[in-house]
Structures are given as C-alpha cells and as structure tokens.
C-alpha cells in the first residue's frame, strides 16, 4: 500500500509561485498514475492535474492550464506541482493522490484514486 506525503505549501502573495512535492513510499511508484487535487473551505475537492505512468502524459484542469505544471521523478518516488501566477481563489488544501489503473488516461474523478496524502495548505494573499 502506497503512502503519500505532501510538502511545499505555505503563504504566498497573488502572482507568486510555489512548488509542491509528494513523496511516495511505494517502490513501484512508476506504475501509479498520480494526481493533485485541492479543496477550499466549504467546497468539493476538485481535480487540478494528473500525470500518467509510463508515458508521463499530463492533464490539467482548465483553470490552471498554462500556469501549473505537474511532473514526476520516478527515481525519487516523487511527483511535483509547480504553481505559478497564483490567485487568491486558489487558496486551499492541496492533496496528492495515486491510482493503480494501468496505461489509461488519468481520471479526473477523485473517487478513482485509492491513495491520498494528508494534504498541504496553500494560502494566496491578495
């Protein structure tokens, strides 16, 4: 069973950048599709980005395209989320998630991810 630990959250001004990291315990990490989600107070957890195993194809929510970049380093069992031009409305707890689903495109539904980290708080001030 894979365990995920996020880091890199914090307080940043609007327009600033943060890089989130998610370290996985699983030695077969490269076989997992990895995703980032976020949840603001009082709102549903929403899809942000995902990266496929194998081909490492990436997928983004429309709201973050061109500003966020997801990447993975299989040698370090780590997935990253580089966030640029952050907006106050993107204040949320950001979660890393993993799914063992083979080579199909990463799902955007949180219910298809079986493993979750504890989350890291990102606060964007105006």
Structure write-up:
By secondary structure, this protein is mostly beta strands. Helices cover 0% and strands 47% of the residues. The strands form 2 sheets. Strands 2, 4, 5, 6, 9, 10 and 11 form a 7-stranded mixed beta sheet that branches. It has a 4-stranded antiparallel beta sheet with strand order 1-3-8-7, with no helix packed on it. The mean pLDDT is 94.
Key terms:
single chain; 126 residues; seven-stranded mixed β-sheet; globular
Q: What structural class do helix, strand and pairing data support?
A: mainly beta
* Global Rg: 13 Å
Straight-line distance between termini: 40 Å
The ordered string of helix (H) and strand (E) elements is: EEEEEEEEEEE
Please give the count of helices: 0
> Spans of 5+ residues with little confidence (pLDDT < 50)?
none
